Amino acid sequence: MVMSFRRMSLNHHPGFDCGGTLWFQNLTEYPHGALGPILPFLIAGLHLINIQMSFQKSSLQHVPGTLGLLAKLYKAYLQLLTLPILVATFNVPQGSLVYWLTNSSLSLIQLLCLTNPSVLDYLELSRKNASVEAPTDKQRGQHGVADTVILTKQGATPAQSLSPAELVSFSIKILTDGRKDTAIGLLRLALEKDPGYVRALLILGQTLLQNKQFAEAAEWLESAISKLLVAGYPTEVEEVDLLILSSIWAGIANVQQGKMQEGLVHLERIAQLEEPEDAKSKAHYYDGLFILSSALLNVDRKAEALEYLQKAAAYNPAYNAYFELLENDSKDLTSDLASSRRDF
């Protein structure tokens, strides 16, 4: 219905020349007069606010290396679009601007709702309506992970009494607050309870990689891979995604230790998989191909590297920007990729 409204204003549908309100009485006209800039400036402002809200809690832009840089560049690109949007809105019928303003406003309302704890509790989207009260990383030097207390609606719960899945869930919440040592303790506890819990192995490996504990990170990640491959290549969506992520980070952990060939074994495993149908897994898959292309350039396998980069760029045009970088400075890019990470 809204889209029909937009098309009718663009096509000068009869009645739209007198169907407006306030200062935009004619919906088929372009913004004009002293009040004309109001809708364009509101739309450009909402675009900028929506970007800030969308990236507010994104961990990617705080990640070191190329993926973190890519997230920052993408945010900067979206911010720079504010000016072209402002210019464009002066050349769009006012009826379309009403549609645009409504859409942007609803997006902002949605973002505000999804960052409101009360709304998340009502929708049961919060982490089981629980919060974590854990000792600081400094305090953990004197006290163990057993001192971590989970506060739920049912009361305080010691970490020792939680299931592995709950421990992983709360460790992720703590990681978003930057408390890596506490999260690592919870993940180790989860693996004491269930040594074969692949998700815990993956997240522990990722976290240790962030801490630059590359050798131990590689061990945990390779353990996750071995468990996923125990019966051959997995077919379940979640297991395929875990295999892709584990292979990416195991490859990076080995590259960071100077073990390029070992790293390539893990990264090339991704290329051997079929393209996943699941959207999230597909994004991880092409991220893996992108990282593989950089690693291959570092061992002078340029033709293969460009082939994988072309595949990644066909999926995500943002990777086109790296063709020149890969041609001119492949080793620096590989080093950056080795320091990068992706959300859990």
From TrEMBL:
Q: How does the protein's chain sit in the membrane according to the entry?
A: Multi-pass membrane protein
One Pfam family, short name please? TPR_19
Q: What's one GO-annotated cellular component?
A: mitochondrial inner membrane
Where does it live in the cell? Membrane
Alphabetical list of Gene3D superfamilies matching this protein = Tetratricopeptide repeat domain
What are the protein's UniProt keywords?
Membrane, Transmembrane, Transmembrane helix
**Record-level Gene Ontology MF annotations:** membrane insertase activity
Which family is annotated?
Belongs to the OXA1/ALB3/YidC (TC 2.A.9.2) family.
Name of the featured protein: Inner membrane protein translocase involved in respiratory chain assembly
Q: Which organism is it from?
A: Handroanthus impetiginosus
